[in-house]
Amino acid sequence: MIPDNLSLRLRLTLLLLVPLMLIAVMLGYWRYSVAKQTAEILFDRSLLATALAISRDVVISEGDSVSPATRKLMDAVANSPLYYHVTGPGGIYVTGYAYPPVRPSRQTGSPYEPDYFNARYRNEAVRVMRLSEVSQIDGIVGDATVTVWQTMSSRIDFARELAAKAAGLMGVLLLTVVVVVWFGVSVGLRPLHSLEEAIRSRSPGDLSTIRRAVPREVAGMVSTLHHLFTRLQKSLADHQSFIADAAHQLRNPATAVLCMAKAAQEAPSEADRQQRINELVDAARMSTRVTEQLLSLGRLQQSEVNEGHDLIELGSLLEKIWSEAAVDVLDRGIAFEWHPAQEPMHVRADELLVSEALKNLLDNALTHGGPGLSRIHVGLVREGDLAKITVANDGNRLSSSDQERAFSRFVQIDTSRGSGLGLAIAAGVADRHGGSLSIDTVDQGASLSLRLPLAV
Questions:
Q1: CA-CA distance, 228 to 199, in Å (whole number)?
Q2: CA distances from 189 to 3, 215, 218 (A)
Q3: Fewest CB within 10 A of the end CB: N or C in the chain?
Q4: What was the pLDDT predicted at 387?
Q5: Is 145 contained in some domain?
Q6: Which of 302, 333, 361 is the last residue of a domain?
């Protein structure tokens, strides 16, 4: 494996060079095999030509000598010592070296055809060619046999020389390929260097689209970078907006708490002091609630889709939330009804965000229900592959036509003391989990339904 931290130019060079080297090794082995076969053919033909020349000279001179032309031929074709042995009719020794190599096995085929075999001569491997012909020497007619042999080293050296030349040629070609690829990749990577320079020269606050032509192979990477810039720009904008909204929303409750605290301190009587202390507690509670909602809004903006989601059983979660809220609802003289589902309903969600959304739906009913609020109804039912949570009340009417304004941040349909964040957070939580929040059409009061996908 090639390490990922290598330069792109080096990686491409290695990816091209390694297969070429493997191919070169295979071609070198093949070329050496072909060279050996070629050497076998050439040298065997040389042995045959030498044997025929010696046979002719022996017949002409009737066994006296080998002609100078034949000796010249032997010197020309031999890169190593070439030996010969001639016998006349009846196996009588005629000329040449006295003891020729012995064939390791019996000859097959016609005795008048060239017979090639490998043998040992003076502890050295040799290639032998034996040829028999009908001849007349000293008036005697019979088979004359010429045996010619040569050491194998000359053939091996010849094959190696051919293979070395081929290897040298392939080496030059490989070196040429490396040089061409190295500089070719350098030229091909110039658009990437230009892209790098364009990104490096940017200021930290410049998240605009990169206006630079890039090769098709890196267009996807640049597109992903643009997408990341867009998300980062939106995240920064949301963050700045959140800081501005939080500063604005916290200023009023904090100022109110301070004013009420001073008013309680300067109360002319004990009864006035107690009344102002109660108002101070309400203002502090309101300030705490606004702070909690702002923190939930910040968490909602920073969380990613499906990040950190656990398997939650909605029935149990709702039981916990309603049991904590029911005491405060009943203390206000408001009837509270809870209708759980007939079966367990599991969803994959961020438990804190879903809990905050449900609390906001209940808080919305209490805050905006008005003086006519007398009953709050909460139900959980299955709706296809969705879990539907409905929070309804008989107070002030909320129409589905008001949904866009009601779900906007810091917007209130009436002039109540709410922060304008509750329904916006609930709608954001539903959207982040692939669900929805809607205002139902009812004859009296208001009804909101939060839908979440059931876990598969």
A1: 14
A2: 19, 9, 11
A3: N
A4: 93
A5: yes
A6: 302
Asked if 20 and 129 sit in the same domain, the reply is: yes
Residues 156/75, Cβ–Cβ less than 8 Å:
no
Q: What is the pLDDT of residue 60?
A: 66
CATH code for the domain of 28? 3.30.450
CB 360 within 8 Å of CB 418: no
The pLDDT, as a whole number, for residue 369 is 83
Lookup result for tokens 């904008």: 237
Confirm whether 416 is domain-assigned.
yes
pLDDT given at position 238: 64
What is the count of structural domains for the chain? 3
Contacts of 378 (CB under 8 A, 6+ apart): 318, 322, 336, 337, 338, 339, 362, 389, 390, 391, 392
How confident is the model at residue 271, as a pLDDT?
78
| Segments of 59-156 assigned E as strands | 82-87, 93-96, 115-120, 125-137, 140-151
The torsion region of residue 63 among left (phi > 0), alpha (psi -120 to 50) and beta comes to left
State the amino acid at position 214 in one-letter form.
Answer: V
- In terms of residue numbers, what domain contains 155? 8-172
Which residues of the chain are modeled with pLDDT < 50? 304-306
pLDDT of 180: 81
